[in-house]
Fold:
Amino acid sequence: MIAKDKLNLFEVTQIQMDKATNFLSLKLSVRKFLEEPMRELHISIPVKMDDGEIRIFKGFRVQYNDARGPCKGGIRFHPYEDINTVRALAAWMTWKCALVDIPFGGAKGGIICNPKELSKNELEKLSRGYIDRIYDIIGPEKDIPAPDVYTNSQVMAWMMDEYSKLKGCNSPGVITGKPISLGGSQGRHDATARGGVFTVREAAKHLNIDLSSATVAIQGYGNAGSWMAILMKNLFGSKIIAISDSNGGIYCEKGLDPREVLKYKNQTGSVKGFSSAENINNEDLLKLKVDIICPAALENCITAENADKINARVIAELANGPTSPEADEVLFKKGIFVIPDFLCNAGGVIVSYFEWVQNLYGYPWEEKMVYERLDKRITHAFQEVLALSIKHKVNMRIAAYMIALTRVVKAMKLRGWIS
Ligand code: NAD
Structure:
C-alpha cells in the first residue's frame, strides 16, 4: 500500500490512465503509444553568472502528444525538477486540453534551478537560454509554452522576445501568460482559480450544497489557492475557515478574510501567525470537517495514509496530482466527491488558449467575454464528466480520462497514425 504511494508522478499518470482504458476497447499498441511521450528534449544551458563564472543548467521540454493540435504546457523553474514530473505534467496537459476540447496537444518544460537564488539579470539570461535551446521545436503552430511554478509574466516576456528575435519578427502567439501590454489576455491572472470555482459551483448543485453557507479549507496560498479563496468568498459568500502554505496554516471557525490573509502573507512571507486565527499544520488542515477542501500546493498530499481521515464533502484539486491512486479509491468508497485536477485546474489553459487566439488574429477581448467563455467551456466539460461517471458508476477522474483518451485516440485515427 505504502509502496504504491511512493510511485513517481509519471507512474501515477500511467496507473490512472490504465484504470480508464479498462473501460475503453483500445488495442494494446494504442495503449502503449499513449503511455509514453512522443518527443522529449534534454538540454544544457550555459549562463554567465554575475560573478563572471559560467554555470550549466539542465532543462527539459516534453511534448507528450500533438494529435489534436500544437502542444501546450507551462515551464517550471524548480530545484527539484525532474524528468518524470515533467513527463507526468505533459501527459496531464494532453488529457486536459482534450477534456475541455481546445485544439492543443500536451507538453511541459522545466529547468533545474532555484530562481530565488538568481539575480534578475541571471534569470533573464537563463530564460533566454532556454528558448535558444528549444527554439526549433516550439512556435505558435508547434508548441506554445506558458508560466508555471516559479515562472511569471516577466519570464514569458523575455522568452517571447528571444523567440521573436530568432524568428526575425514579432511572434506573441509563441507563448501565453504574457503581460497584457505584450499581448497577454484579460482574466489570465485568476483564470485557474476561477475555472476551479465554476467546477465547485457545479459540484455543489449536484450534491445540494449551499455555497453561501459552505466552509472551505485551502492548502497552498500562491496564485491558485489565494484566488480560489477570494473568489469563493466574493462570488458565493462561502466561509474560508483554514488556509496554509509551506510554513504552516491558520484556522478560524468564524471565517478568514482572504484578501487580508494575502496582504499579511505578502508582508511576512507566510500566512502563519495571522491575527485572530489559531495556527494549524498542513496535515490537520486536510482532516478538518469542511464542505470543500482545495489542495492548491503540492502533488501527492492525499495518500493511502491520510485519505481515510478526510472529512470534506468535496475535494477540488487545483494542484496537479494531489491525490495518489490508492487514496482515490478510499475517497470514492467514502463518497467524497473529487473534482480531478485536469478538470478543476483547466481554467488556466482555457484562458491561455483564448490568449493564443487573440494573438493570432490580433484583436484583444474584454474581460467579461473571457470569463463568460471560460465558464461555458469548463461547465460543459464538468457536466460531460459527471454524466459519464454516473453512467459507468466510476469516479470523476476515470470518467474524465475516458473522455480525454477517446478524443485523443479519435484524432490519432483520423490522422492515420493508428488503425
Ligand atoms: P505558487 O508557487 O504560486 O503557490 C504555491 C503555494 O503552495 C505557496 O503558497 C507555497 O507556500 C505553498 N506550499 C508549498 N509547499 C507546501 C506545503 N508543503 N504545504 C502547504 N503549502 C505549500 O503556485 P501556483 O501557481 O499557485 O500552483 C499551485 C498548484 O496549482 C501547483 O500544483 C500547480 O501545478 C497547480 N496549477 C497552477 C496553475 C496556475 O495557473 N497557477 C494552473 C494549473 C495548475
